[in-house]
Design goal:
344 residues, alpha/beta, TIM Barrel, eight-stranded parallel barrel, 12 strands, disordered C terminus
Length: 344
């Protein structure tokens, strides 16, 4: 096992992914944002973007998110790429560093995708070795993100959640819980998204990601695609609520990588994440203090994705559907039709 590194954290509030169209505006406006996250590979050289990030780093907490380490590679991580990542971390001193539970390199060729692993003991040993190498090189804990999946290996001997639990135990790594990825994978592979979240060790989850996804019709089947190209849909907000109710507040990132909107849209999505978390925690504190009464108490939000709505903004659709929680009644998984009527 890697030696224990002191986990570094950023505020348990909502941040945004820094995208190049927004850099100038971030510098000039300095809007309220809990923190920023950047893709490590975009800052491994020099240039105006790197200089701008050095300035922004003085204003906002920073998370560095890698997409090219290929932690699932059987031959180990690319030492040159890891050294470039080390220099990025040394230069910007990020508060969090994360990567994906995936592979993307084969025989020296980099593939433009994050590909799934077979979840078994052999793969676990290889990933654990690679994670230890990364953490020992960076001299810090790294958060590992769950993957969005479209297919699964038939001969896996464990599921992804079980794999992540064991990876944490062996390496001391943390976890990045991508709630949108959970929803995408749960629909595509037909498992329970809440059960997946509940299986993860709460203390190891150092960051949460939220994003939108696309809905593709393939013959008679509907496939969700993790494209990060739209607002967070109601079904993902509802799953995020479940995560926060179980975990408590966590640093939460709004991801948006395709069809990037104006900056205020991202800031608005982050605001909704903060508001939802604050509402959940307020209700929890009120209940703990025993100050609630039948007629005067903070009604806990229970996000519903059922029924029609007239609003065109998905997160508002989710909040418009808020209702009192049903006592001791498990929330049934909604049908795909119910989920997306609410986002229409």
């Amino acid at each position: 096992m890697s030696r224990a590194f002191q986990p570094l954290t950023i505020p348990a509030s909502a941040g945004i992914g820094l995208r190049s169209p927004h850099i100038s505006e971030m510098l000039s406006r300095r809007p309220s944002a809990g923190w920023l996250e950047v893709h490590a590979e975009n800052y491994m050289g020099d240039g105006a973007g790197v200089e701008a990030l050095e300035r922004l780093r003085q204003i906002y907490p920073l998370s560095v998110h890698g997409v090219g380490l290929s932690l699932g590679s059987a031959r180990g991580v690319d030492r040159d790429h890891l050294e470039r990542l080390r220099k990025v971390c040394e230069r910007f001193q990020p508060d969090l560093v994360s990567e994906h539970l995936a592979w993307s390199v084969a025989d020296g060729a980099y593939l433009n995708d994050l590909l799934p692993l077979r979840y078994d003991e052999e793969a676990l040993a290889k990933v654990a070795r690679n994670v230890e190498t990364v953490q020992d090189t960076l001299k810090r804990q790294v958060l590992i993100e769950n993957l969005s999946a479209y297919i699964a290996f038939a001969d896996s001997s464990m599921n992804e959640a079980e794999f992540l639990v064991e990876l944490v135990a062996r390496t001391g790594c943390g976890l990045l819980l991508d709630v949108n990825n959970v929803q995408v994978s749960a629909h595509n592979l037909q498992f329970n998204a809440k059960t997946f979240i509940d299986a993860l060790p709460a203390a190891s989850i150092g960051e949460i990601h939220l994003a939108g996804h696309a809905i593709n019709q393939v013959g008679a089947d509907t496939v969700l695609i993790d494209d990060h190209g739209s607002r967070v849909p109601p079904v993902v907000w509802a799953l995020y609520q479940h995560a926060i109710e179980r975990l408590g507040p966590r640093p939460t990132l709004i991801e948006w990588d395709t069809d990037v909107p104006v900056l205020d849209v991202l800031l608005g999505e982050a605001m909704w994440a903060d508001m939802l978390t604050a509402s959940i925690m307020f209700s929890r504190k009120q209940a703990a203090r025993g100050q609630q009464t039948t007629h005067a108490r903070a009604t806990p939000i229970c996000l519903s994705v059922e029924g029609e709505t007239t609003t065109s903004m998905p997160v508002l659709a989710a909040f418009a559907a808020a209702r009192a929680a049903r006592p001791s009644t498990p929330l049934a998984l909604p049908s795909l039709e119910e989920e997306y009527h609410a986002a229409a």
